[in-house]
Amino acid sequence: FTVIGPHDPVTAILGQEAVLPCHLSPRMSAANMEVRWFRSQFLSFVHLYRDGKDQYEGQMPEYWGRTELLKAGLTDGNVPLRILNIRRSDEGQYHCFVQDDIFSEETTLELRVAGLGSAPLISVEGHQDGGIRVVCRSAGWYPEPEVLWKDLNGRHLPSLSETKSQGDNNLFETETVIIVTEHANQNLSCCIRNTVLNQEKESAVYICHCLCVLLYFTAHFTVIGSDQAVTSSIGDEAILHCHLSPKMSTENMEVRWFRSKFSSPVHLYRDQKDQYVQQMPEYRGRTELLKDGMADGRVALKIRNITFSDAGWYSCFFRSNVSYEEALIELKLAASGSDPLISVEDYQDEGIRIVCQSIGWYPEPELQWRDRSGNHLSSLFGKKSQSENGLFSIQHMLIITEKSIRNLSCSIRNSVLKQEKVSRVYISGEFLSNLHNKYNEIWLTLMGSIY
């Protein structure tokens, strides 16, 4: 016998069921044969029928409780497989393998999975570029759908922008924007099409000239953030402020704080409550929207337990029913390290070696030696290093001779915090002379021992 399956791929809709056809030619009973459906590995089967009954020991875990061999046509050699509650992972190739006592044969077929998303939601979101901004959104599509704007006569209209993204469930979300000018009334439709299913969903809207005029005179707002960067220390908290001008309530608006990706918020407030489903994982449990001033258009984002990756730009985005605006705010990070530690370490080059060191700075600090009058002194040697926690350590060395000025200070400055820490030391001439004489005495003793 030969095992025969469909030449074309079988298409299934997410969440529904699929039937994979398979039969023997010529017709003969398969009731006493082994029928095995598997994917890449023969032993890890999708479904197994043997010895006149279904066998489940060894079945792939992801198919438990979801498969059924349809046995109504077994006596005619029909052995189709039904898969319930279709998932994205079910997509791909399947083998239909049939074996009797002396012979075996198989065929391969392909299952394609598709998702038919939600009906397009069209919203009018504000005045822009001499017209009004109209947005079409939909979610739950697979694979990536086609999106088209059409006029009353079915002609395609160019969109201003289009974004598609995959959510945690690997289904596609789409958002497309078109600008409707004030010069004429418009009948518009947004059509989203699944190319695998050859099905589409469409929504329509009528935009009249009077709405354009009304939106033009609707009160707009500007979002204002801090002119200067907000500075915080590692491990502390940071508060980023922004507000609307003119003053107006933001309680019914969307307030979104995000970084480079709009769809992955640092914090999102919408429908009068905080939303955490789309929040960036690295900010979970660390953010809070301070709402005390929302009635006056003032909000602030608190970020706790600041880390190095938090440094950079943040967008403060507001959206009402008819308008939206945003502002950028920069967060800079800094850490003030330990007080400089000055140590006298050895005799060198007819003087003594003085070392200044400190740890725990961010960003990389500046170190300067100064004399009693505040003049800068050049270091003989300096080095900086960064530890695993990202903080900098610094060490500089200076040689003090018998004739040099011996009132010294070591200053370490953080350029972001505009703070510095200073330590001072006094080296007496008598100490230098004694050290110099002692060094010469040791040197002569050593030379005498050699000769």
Quick structural gist:
By secondary structure, the protein is mainly beta. It is 7% helix and 51% strand.
Lay out the secondary structure:
Elements: E1 2-4, E2 10-13, E3 18-20, E4 23-25, E5 34-38, E6 45-50, E7 53-55, E8 67-69, E9 81-83, E10 92-99, E11 104-114, E12 121-128, E13 131-141, E14 146-150, E15 156-157, E16 161-166, E17 172-181, E18 186-194, E19 199-207, H1 209-217, E20 222-225, E21 230-233, E22 238-245, E23 254-258, E24 265-270, E25 273-275, E26 287-290, E27 298-303, E28 312-319, E29 324-334, E30 341-348, E31 351-361, E32 366-370, E33 376-377, E34 381-386, E35 392-401, E36 407-414, E37 419-426, H2 429-450
Parallel strand pairs: 2-11, 21-29
Antiparallel strand pairs: 1-4, 3-9, 5-6, 5-10, 6-7, 8-9, 10-11, 12-13, 13-17, 14-15, 14-18, 16-17, 18-19, 20-22, 22-27, 23-24, 23-28, 24-25, 26-27, 28-29, 30-31, 31-35, 32-33, 32-36, 34-35, 36-37
Keywords:
51% strand, mainly beta, Immunoglobulin-like, 6-stranded mixed sheet, 451 residues
Uncertain runs with pLDDT below 50, 5 residues or more?
213-219
User: Can you tell me the CATH topology of the largest domain?
Assistant: Immunoglobulin-like
Spatial ordering of strands, largest sheet = 2-11-10-5-6-7
Question: How many DSSP H or I helices?
Answer: 2
How many domain units?
Answer: 4
Q: CATH homologous superfamily name of the largest domain?
A: Immunoglobulins
> Main beta sheet: strand number and arrangement?
6 strands, mixed
Strand content: over 45%
**Name of the CATH class of the largest domain:** Mainly Beta
- CATH architecture assignment of the largest domain: Sandwich
Radius of gyration: 37 Å
Label the structural class.
mainly beta
Average pLDDT reading: 87
Q: What's the number of extended β-strand segments?
A: 37
Distance between the termini: 106 Å
Taken from the alpha-carbon principal axes, the silhouette is flat
Helix content: under 10%
